[in-house]
Amino acid sequence: MAHKRFSDEDQDQPNQKRMKTRPSLVSVIRDVVKVNSLEYICSTLEPMIRRVVSEEVENGVKSICMRSISRSPSMKIQSADHEKPTALQLIFSKRISLPIFTGTKIVDIDNNPLQILLVDSTAAEHAKAPTSLPHRIKVEIVVLDGDFDRPELTWNKEEFDKKIVKERSGKRPLLTGGELNIMMRDGIAVVGDIEFTDNSSWIRSRKFKLGARVVSQGNSQSVRICEAMTEPFVVKDHRGEVYKKHHPPALEDDVWRLEKIGKNGAFHRKLSSHGINTVQDFLKLFTIEPSKLRKILGDGMSDKMWEVTSGHAKTCTLGSKLYRYCGPSYTLILNPICQIVKLEVDGRVYFARDLKTIQTSYVANLIKDAYIEWNSLEEVHETALLTQGDMMIGHDPNEQQTVIRSYMGHSQSLITDGSSGGDGGAYDWVVNSRF
Question: Which GO terms describe its cellular component (predicted)?
Fold first, then answer.
């Protein structure tokens, strides 16, 4: 029986094996899904793995190279040379004329177009001359933030570029009107007619600077040329130009064109109430009686403000016009601000340089009379007067004093202690004085 049972089991065994090796539909589907998922995962991970490996290899190579460089004396020298400050720089040849208004041409202090020079920064300031390079250089004019304040040549290109100011959203470019990219020849580049289109009030510093940088060096890029920049300045709207102060002022300018005197302000109204409407009016009274002029302006004008205003007025260009004032036995020739050029008494002629030796209150009073009658004075053009004055230098001062004393008829005439009898000082009424 046992033998038979074993025999029966042996007969069933092949069938059981056949049952185990026959895969079911579910297992087949499961195996297919596993294979597809693995292929997808591999295809996804492969680029990522390649990139990570590549980066790690690159970093390793760089690290090895840097260690090699640090151990090499020759490479250290080359690196040090590369970091040395440049000896070449761009500069603006002259300061910019101020103030600056939108829509107004930007010029230098001599009213000429701006010039940019390429110079050797190691040269002394007075010895800086244009330097030529063997290749052409293109220079770009840019606007900088006024707060870019670094010692000369201590900034790098990236720091300079970060301070470039662009136009506000929806506005025109900040600089227009001329070519902003100019070629430099023989170390000189002349800037065309450029102007601002927007004021500077919208940036934090409220000021701009003009800058110049090299954007192309022909076939060579090996030379570092330091950028140029001007002093900071305010750009005002064009409508503010009607209140602009003139430097120098003109005789016919309204008196509010002088520094510290605002249009329709308190000082302007005070001066106008006394008939002082122009710079010429201001200077005439300043010549004759400065203390009176000072009193008109009042305590609201400090001594410092007074010095600024009067100093600005004294830069006025007088021109060549002269004025004749005639009395019973004398003739005065005055310049436009009531300074004496020539005095003729009883046929004798005295020029300004001669009058300095005979200072008389009488002459000062004659000039005051001429000031009062200014509107009736005759305008003349006697350009030969100064030449004639040189011919009169040899006259004896004692003889001059005698002539004027005899004309006055009394001994009160001569003032030898430095006083002219007025508030203007000894020589205020003498032409070419220093006020």
Answer: nucleus
